DNA sequence: GCGGGGTGTGAACTCGGGTTCATTCCTTCT
DNA sequence: AGAAGGAATGAACCCGAGTTCACACCCCGC
């Protein structure tokens, strides 16, 4: 046996893997899952189609990893807010604003990750993500109810409503690549945040 | 020229067309768009695959017609409420409850029509439907704002949020054929309605 | 620098699913 | 009843997209 992978070689492997992953993510980010064909991914990352299969056993696994990677990151951001020691209302506001504006930075990707169905294997991961996200909001709501800051709403249902409201108002009616400008985006986020806040705390108006 | 289609024959044609359409709708209703393969539709409606193409030029057109038919009906129901002469708050309540409970009667179909992407041709029709639905709510909101019953929210954004909240809380996290029983459904509709109402009128609690 | 095994390549294969079309069946009109 | 032509049939066709595999290449250890 004359060969043991040198460290240098291992790194090259990992790098290539990352390159492919990134290329795939970029394709999804501006064309949805439909644009992430194995050929295209290979082309964009500068490898041959067959090479993709040296790193993932199937296209589904590649896609699943994209979903897992990106969403883990997003959930992490929101979760940090949840676990801060602000008051529930502040947490909710911050969580909504943060998530919404992040999603707006990559509408198409956000849509693909949140709403667009794919094959069952990927779907599993996607639902997991959505569940975690909803769970974050649920925790905030539950805390708020306990402290008497929110009315007696059902946290699970309300959390789902919040996520849904995002999805539709933010990335739903989007014609692909509908760039509306930073000002409009800011306004949109603000409106959505206010909507969800009113729904959660039961009080009109709220300006920050 | 020896042949003019007799009335009887014309009716037979139309009937067959309806049979196919219904079969397709049923398949979508319990398997999503993926289940509506031309072969299956033909099998279920008792015709040959080729016969489907005597009535529609392509599968897309068949699907588009399903979306158009069903959604026209649903929008009609909601629109009737919008055009009644109740007060805005009552209208909103009724519209939400009605739409939600109708959707629950056929979750899978509702999901397919509202959220599940298909090919571009069908997508166009679907977006049209969703826009009309949102527009119904927008009208109610606008009226309520004018009369001072609702706070100064952005009607378009809020309408999108309402539709989205529905979608997610009602049919989103649904595992296919997740029958939870009439009581649970009623509770769910009520929670969603309250959420949307609080968000719209900015007041906690509301029981009917 | 030479042999061997990991890595890269891309053309070919496979397979699912929409579409077609030559043929057969059936209805209408004389 | 027989001719004429529209409707029905379903097996064959086509095409796109994921997957494979025989071969070329290169990097490592001697």
Portion of residues within helices of chain A: over 70%
In terms of quaternary structure, the protein is: homodimer
Q: What is the H/E string of chain A?
A: HHHHHHHHH
pLDDT under 50 segments of chain A (min length 5)?
Answer: 204-208
- Total of helices of chain A: 9
Strand content of chain A: under 5%
Give the CA-CA distance, first to last residue of chain A: 67 Å
Radius of gyration of chain A: 20 Å
Largest interface: A-B, 40 and 39 residues
Structural class of chain A: mainly alpha
**How many β-strand runs of chain A?**
0
Calculate the mean pLDDT score of chain A and round it.
Answer: 87
Q: Describe the biggest sheet of chain A?
A: none
Task: Describe the SSE topology.
2 copies of one chain form a homodimer.
Chain A lengths: L6 H23 L8 H8 L3 H7 L3 H24 L5 H18 L1 H8 L5 H27 L8 H17 L10 H20 L7
Helix pairs in contact in A: 1-2, 1-6, 2-3, 4-5, 4-7, 5-7, 5-9, 7-8, 8-9
Chain B binds a DNA duplex (30 and 30 nucleotides) through helix 1, helix 2 and helix 3.
């Amino acid at each position: 046996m004359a060969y043991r992978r040198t460290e240098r070689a291992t790194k090259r492997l990992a790098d290539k893997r990352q390159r492919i992953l990134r290329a795939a993510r970029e394709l999804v980010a501006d064309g949805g899952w439909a644009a992430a064909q194995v050929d295209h991914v290979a082309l964009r990352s500068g490898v041959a189609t067959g090479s993709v299969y040296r790193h993932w056993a199937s296209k589904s696994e590649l896609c699943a990893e994209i979903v897992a990677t990106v969403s883990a990151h997003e959930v992490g951001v929101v979760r940090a807010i949840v676990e801060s020691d602000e008051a529930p209302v502040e947490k909710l506001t911050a969580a909504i604003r943060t998530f919404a504006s992040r999603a707006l930075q990559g509408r198409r990707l956000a849509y693909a990750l949140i709403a667009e169905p794919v094959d069952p294997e990927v779907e599993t991961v996607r639902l997991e993500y959505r569940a975690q996200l909803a769970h974050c909001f649920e925790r905030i709501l539950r805390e708020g109810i306990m402290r008497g800051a929110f009315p007696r709403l059902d946290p699970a249902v309300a959390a789902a409503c919040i996520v849904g409201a995002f999805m539709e108002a933010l990335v739903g009616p989007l014609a692909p690549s509908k760039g509306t400008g930073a000002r409009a985006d800011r306004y949109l986020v603000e409106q959505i945040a206010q909507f969800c806040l009113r729904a959660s705390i039961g009080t009109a108006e709220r300006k920050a």
